[in-house]
Design a protein that fits this description.
The complex is a heterotrimer. Chain A is mainly alpha-helical. Helix content of chain A is 67%, strand content 5%. By secondary structure, chain B is mostly helical. Chain B is 77% helix and 1% strand. Chain B has 16 helices and two strands. The longest helix of chain B is centred in the middle third of the chain and has 41 residues. The chains are: A mainly alpha, B mainly alpha, C alpha/beta.
Chain lengths: 442, 462, 292
Amino acid sequence: MRANDGDDDRARRQLSPEETRRRVDASLRRRYRSEQLFRLYGLGSVCLGVVFLLVLFGTIIGSGYSAFRQGFVRLDVHFDADLIDPDGGRDLDVLSAADYSLLVKAALRELVPEVASRAEKRELNGLVSSGAVFELRDTVMADAQILGQTRSLWLPLSGDVDLWIKARSAGKSGEDMGGKLSANQRAWLERLQADDRIELRFNRTFFTSGDSREPELAGIWGATKGSFFMLLVTLLLSFPLGVAAAIYLEEFARRSWWVDIVEVNINNLAAVPSIVFGLLGLAVFINFFGLPRSAPLVGGLVLTLMTLPVVIIASRAAIKAVPPSVREAALGIGASQMQMVFHHVLPLALPGMLTGAIIGMARALGESAPLLMIGMVAFIVDVPGGPMSPSTALPVQIYLWADSPERAFVARTSAAIMVLLAFLLVMNASAVWLRSRFERRW
Amino acid sequence: MRLPTLLLILAAIVLAAFFLGRQRALSLARPAGGVRSLHSLPKYYGYYASLGAVVPGIALLLMWAAFSDSLITSRVVASLPEALRNQPEAQLSLTLNDIRNLAAGQMQDESRSAEFAVAADLYNSLRDSSRKVLAGLVIALSFSGFALAWLQLRPQFRARNRVEAVVRFMLVLASLLAIVTTIGILLSVSFEALRFFRQVPVGEFLFGLSWSPQTAIRADQVGSSGAFGAVPLFVGTLLISGIALLVAVPIGLMIAIYLSEYARPRLRRIVKPVLEVLAGIPTVVYGYFAALTVAPIIRLAGQQLGLEVASEAALGAGLVMGIMIIPFVSSLSDDAINAVPQAMRDGSFALGATRSETIKRVVLPAALPGIVGGVLLAASRAIGETMIVVMAAGLSANLSFNPLESVTTVTVQIVTLLVGDQEFDSPKTLAAFALGLMLFIVTLILNVIALQVVRRYREQYE
Amino acid sequence: MLIMDKAQDVVAPPADTVPAAAVPADAQRLASDTVGDVTAKDAVICVRGGNVFYGDTHALINVSLDIGRNEVIALIGPSGCGKSTFLRCLNRMNDTIESARVKGDFRLDGQDMYARDTDVVMLRARVGMVFQKPNPFPKSIYENVAYGARIHGLAANRAELDDIVYGSLERAGLVDEVKDRLDDPGTGLSGGQQQRLCIARTIAVNPEVILMDEPCSALDPIATARIEDLIDELSEKYAIAIVTHSMQQAARVSNRTAYFHLGRIIEVGPTDKIFTNPAHKLTEDYVTGRFG
């Protein structure tokens, strides 16, 4: 810059208004084009975000909805007393130990009498799920009078057959889905279909049973209960602790380096990777305190530590939103600080705190990485009875099924995801409702 | 006595203590001129008595929970025959595990020697007696605590102040939990990591180029030592996180810009919650999506282009992780952009700048610290993300920067090393904690820097 | 037009656009509720029947006013009377407010400001604005002044840009204070310097009119005096409209004064007449300090 130039020189070089206008005009075309482009980038990004969401949901729903229905076959089962209870004692132990698969086999043979070789028999028996025997057993155990009679029963088909039938009913050839079925099996199934003996019915098993190696017998009830116990522990611990910490930090603590450290800590903990909490749980709760692996209690403890920062941050915001005038009014009539907090501030801040807690719970419900560390990834068939019995959690169940090689688990994984998302939707919606219902502007 | 029963009894004592304490206060007050002569409301005397009953009992319970197991274990170890007791640490912990399982009746392995059965019996009997002693002590402590509190009650006794002091103390304890958690993470993870570094030198872990933690069970097997050079994991983590940030930062930032600078309020009201849904989806769902949908698409596209694409290519996991953190980036950028005062924009518009010129030359530079803080937080998130990479990234530690190859990450290795049957004290298991320590330190540094930057930025415009 | 399409949604093209030639004849009728002469000799800005609505609020009611070349016109009145709103109409800054609607005839050099084919960018390059609170960009002093020239492409090379920046700082009376630290952030200057920087930034684009919205309200008396001197110097080259709360300031810097009251212009006239001999009762009450 030539700072020493004379004023005249400077004035001469200053643009005339006309020249300025000409130059601005010359720049306009380029600028408007880049404006439009920039705006398009923005709009495109927004669309991209929405499209991602739609594709995600579309994929999940598209591959998962079929799991809510299950293929059944109607068999005329003859409850042969000689096979089940040869002694005729109707002893419950005998009844429960009997081999009910014989009944299924017999019923199938009746429908497809031409089967001769052992291989063909195996193919035929493979059509029906291995879980069918449990249903027959339960039927007999419930009412032994049925022995000797013949009943027409709907029994679940095996996973591969189920896939083939769903593919056919969706109008596809079934070739690609039924790759595992032999030509014989397809022929028999087509015949059964022609006889109206095959039907897609609501898949109750999916909602009522625990995990299983057989896709058609696997359900989410065990995982759901495990998640429920875990969230229960988390809620019972993190809500009171988080609220207490928030009250102390907002109402009692004086500004000091100490409080600063606590604050930095809380903010940092909210951003620590969840898997690190899993390591903490493994080292402290399981190895040091000797708590059992795979227990919802331990999962709940780990998730408590994870959600605590969320609850504290939300609770502090809720307390901050209570105007100072309320505090002054309470203190002014002689309440102690503790009474002021518990009688006046806390009730007013409670809805906001609850909203924060629900959002924290929703996050805890979707969390799976730390649970892998503490053994909740085990294959557990039984539905857990309490917070100490081994169990898994809904998102971990999804992870387990996603890893299974059986194709029939693909649909079930997606269906389990739909259930999980439904839970999350309900929780978040209730948080939103709570906020709008009790939101107060001071 | 089982724990729930004990807790029930304790609760009953506490409840009784409340009523007795209140009653005591009232009866003390009657001769002195009624309730008004008391220093505090009668219920505070009740609270005080209950606190006297509950605090010592609970304290003892917690101590028991913390130390009983290790005490019992050491007694059991001491009782073991010489040969078993002098095993190396790793073997010993396996032995103890077996004894515990035997004691819990989970293992009916007849092949175990009689020594195990004896030890298991001892373990059970010690546990039994420790439980009995505990129950007795807790109840006794509760009663004596209550008695002490009860004896202190006078009309002029400052019950409310005492109770409030205790409550306040509990509030302090609750607020300390965050620090305790951080210290707990640091201690537990670094303790195990130190044990790992005793077996594998730090230098080899940090700078080694080969990672194959599968140590052999028998010493004479090939490759029995295992290799613990973590560089391939760091590179893999950086590669996948880098891809994720390349996806998320431009898209997230442009979304934030569009929504806060261009979109009408109505569009904003609709789109914002929709994008928040994206943030609320569990990561396991993203992982499933990556493995089921995105990976095959990438492989197919690669084949069309004649490229060699691994079935668990880093690109797939990175893309999906990017989608996951889009809402994160966009909401933090949104905060930063909204914090820029309207006066800045007005100044620019008044000079004749177009909207995009104003954004690019005024708003974004002004919001840059806030945006950088958000990106750092997003990076920390991407590095620590687990489920997506566990489900969609590979297991083999390839040292590669090629996004079409399969790489593995720190979190994937932690999960593989710790899921399933573990033998404690083997370097394989301990390596997971060393990786966890690295992860914690790196994310801690990122978070602290990011939070500081964001905080300073907010203060600038407040 | 691409950029301000949002503005077009809210600013309906004036339905009752009056042909340019007809304006003077209609002037008296349109300004019938204003006392004094709203017209100016050699007017650069010409407003007839201007109305502004913010949602349901009628913020500016049927105002008419000319601004002449080389004159300083002061807009005074109690707060909330619409003087800032009027000012913001003159370079379409109201476009950035979602709920604002502008109606009426606003002309710059005879050209309708709100016509479809009028370019906002060009309009604002010709009508600059200085705000109440100094709002330098978070950039260096140099970049602050160079900003307008850069976006409009006024300088062909670095030397020309240097000239523009240096000349503007000089005309804003800031050059001696900052010439050694042009790379320091503009936000590091004092309040008065910041405001002069904003003025330098505005004149770097070479506007014809400068709008000033209470430019001294955030400044101390000494800084205010410097800005007032600067306004005096600038009035040789630019038309200046200044909104002010201070009647003394209006008296010191302006040739003409318009008194606003509840969204209307009550009285317009030479500054000394307004302050010494106002024609309207409301004006008299205001200038004598009965309210305000």
